[in-house]
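can u do me a favor
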């Protein structure tokens, strides 16, 4: 193929995706609305695409850019010179490394970490990978971490606890956990406290009325902050910061007992492109502290306007009042979030359904970025229309027998043939066994919503497995 043919085909395939710019995709992507930031990020990404972060002595420019980003973050996270940091590929890797580091530092049998039940799923992934028991404590009022219940759990587990973690804010509800109170508990017991600020860590520093949450709080030992979220850098960049070098040391991996080069890594990856790091450095340098303050103010103004508008729409309510830029919307019994999600996509807006959890019904998650703020009136008009149409259609109804079957399935007893049948019932597979994403996800999501978490997981794994065959 010629270069022109290749670019034409890429453009055609790209049209199948959700838009990453324009502020109409309210999950997965973050858009500053600054064309200059997008352009400088793309140029830096291309310039450093073949640079390898494996060996900082071979590519000292990457080392210097990493140091610059860590220094910029230290300035805004009330961190002294003792704080050290590492650039990772994203929030999940930062969280994985925080858990692995805590586990390796403690070296106890049956290690455990204590977290609120609203903690990001990446902690469950870390628990699975590293053999650390995830002890999730139900949250208290306003979906915030219950400090008393977590303290009781910590004391019950005793020396097994290697890490305590909390969110600023939580993804599912957009509220900030009480970091000061938790830090007092962990500090008294000599435990590590990780603050997952992957979403809020580049917003809260420019919110003067934010409650203390960062290294200004004695007892906070590590923080994860994603740059590819509200720093608006191209995808693939997060920061993991530790309060001092001693706390970080177990994060490093070295291996010399083989015939090749001595492997030395600060992250999960060995070879890693320098492109995302260079792009992040370029965008952060371009926007700067004052630029981020303006973007945060604009984003929060849009978030407040959106929250007020939602409260004025029949059948909708706020699950919690947003602490930063995440808005979570609930409905009454006349409509369901899955139909609304489909109808909003018809109108050019992507909103993210979140499945029921315990006694809490499904809801809609909205991530507001700076580019979305100017479009809030347009979004609210579309949302009002979608809700009215959903009210006429009524909630998606699942056959009671099918719902009962989904609720009582044991995924451990199902074979591939049974999963193929379930995927077909869910509308995700045809008679030939081939799977595809349907045009309308509402009925599929409604069925998945009535299934217990383990059945949901098994169905989604089966779907992804067949989708990628």
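np, heres the sequence
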């Amino acid at each position: 193929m010629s270069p022109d043919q290749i670019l034409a085909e890429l453009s055609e395939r790209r049209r199948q995706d959700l838009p990453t710019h324009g502020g109409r995709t309210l999950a997965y992507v973050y858009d500053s609305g600054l064309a200059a930031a997008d352009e400088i990020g793309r140029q830096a990404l291309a310039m450093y695409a073949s640079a390898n972060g494996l060996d900082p002595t071979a590519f000292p420019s990457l080392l210097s850019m990493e140091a610059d980003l860590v220094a910029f973050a230290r300035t805004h996270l009330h961190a002294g010179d003792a704080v050290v940091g590492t650039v990772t590929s994203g929030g999940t890797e930062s969280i994985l490394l925080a858990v692995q580091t805590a586990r390796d530092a403690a070296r106890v049998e049956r290690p455990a970490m204590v977290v609120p039940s609203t903690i990001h799923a990446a902690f469950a992934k870390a628990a699975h990978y590293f053999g650390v028991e995830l002890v999730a404590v139900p949250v208290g009022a306003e979906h915030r971490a219950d400090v008393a219940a977590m303290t009781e759990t910590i004391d019950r587990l005793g020396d097994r606890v290697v890490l305590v973690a909390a969110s600023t804010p939580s993804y599912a509800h957009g509220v900030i956990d009480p970091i000061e109170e938790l830090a007092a508990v962990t500090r008294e017991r000599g435990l590590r406290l990780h603050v997952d600020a992957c979403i809020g860590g580049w917003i809260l520093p420019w919110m003067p009325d934010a409650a203390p949450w960062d290294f200004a709080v004695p007892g906070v030992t590590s923080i994860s902050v994603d740059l590819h979220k509200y720093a608006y850098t191209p995808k693939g960049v997060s920061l993991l910061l530790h309060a001092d070098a001693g706390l970080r040391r177990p994060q490093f991996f070295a291996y010399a007992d083989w015939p090749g080069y001595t492997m030395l890594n600060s992250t999960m990856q060995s070879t890693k492109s320098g492109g995302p790091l260079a792009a992040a450095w370029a965008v952060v340098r371009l926007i700067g502290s004052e630029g981020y303050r303006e973007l945060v103010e604009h984003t929060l103004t849009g978030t407040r306007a959106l929250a007020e508008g939602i409260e004025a729409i029949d059948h909708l309510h706020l699950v919690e009042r947003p602490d930063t830029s995440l808005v979570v919307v609930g409905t009454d019994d006349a409509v369901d979030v899955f139909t609304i999600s489909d109808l909003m996509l018809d109108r050019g807006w992507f909103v993210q359904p979140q499945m029921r959890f315990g006694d809490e019904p499904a809801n809609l998650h909205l991530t507001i970025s700076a580019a979305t703020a100017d479009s809030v009136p347009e979004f609210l008009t579309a949302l009002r229309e979608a809700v009215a149409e959903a009210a006429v259609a009524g909630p998606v109804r699942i056959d009671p027998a099918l719902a009962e079957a989904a609720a009582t399935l044991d995924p451990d007893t199902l074979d591939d043939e049974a999963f193929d049948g379930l995927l077909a019932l869910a509308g995700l597979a045809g008679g030939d066994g081939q799977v595809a994403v349907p045009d309308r996800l509402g009925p599929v999501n409604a069925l998945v919503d009535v299934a217990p978490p383990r059945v949901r997981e098994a169905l989604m794994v089966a779907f992804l497995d067949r989708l990628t065959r």
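The CA atoms of residues 335 and 391 lie 5 Å apart. hope that helps!!
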